[in-house]
Known about the structure:
By secondary structure, the protein is of the alpha+beta class.
Amino acid sequence: MNNEEKRHLFVSKPLAFYFFLTFTFLGLIYFIFATSTKNIKSSEASPIFKDKNIFSHLNKFRDTSYTIRSRESLDRSNIHRVFFQVDVPKGINQEQLLAVAQKIVKEAISHEYCHSIKIDFGPYGYVDFAPYGNWAKGGEVPISHYRNYRFKLCLIFLFFSQD
């Protein structure tokens, strides 16, 4: 046999070692980002969903229609705020509006951790879900199952039907 017939692909041991380390490092980085707090979902068993004082209107007015016109993440540093613009039917009352807000918030925090959520209902006003009901305090209080979070309604009474 001559030298040309004996040619094989040889990889040096240090090169194979670096190749192995590179893939191990990439796998570790993927694992860290895949389990970051933004990607971890709150479960339905979260204590916040059982708190009847916070989600008092959640099971009322299930048939109230609404359309989420836009959703925007307002992230700054490590603070994750979400802003929704929502269209609701003309003549909606305050309780129905709160039920829609609670439904949107429940859906949002079931999929991601949010430091504050603002829902703009156009001419009807807006609803904040934030620590102590204060949008500006988002990020100052640990999320920790939303223990100190409350709904704050800023509504324009001129547009509500008189029931």
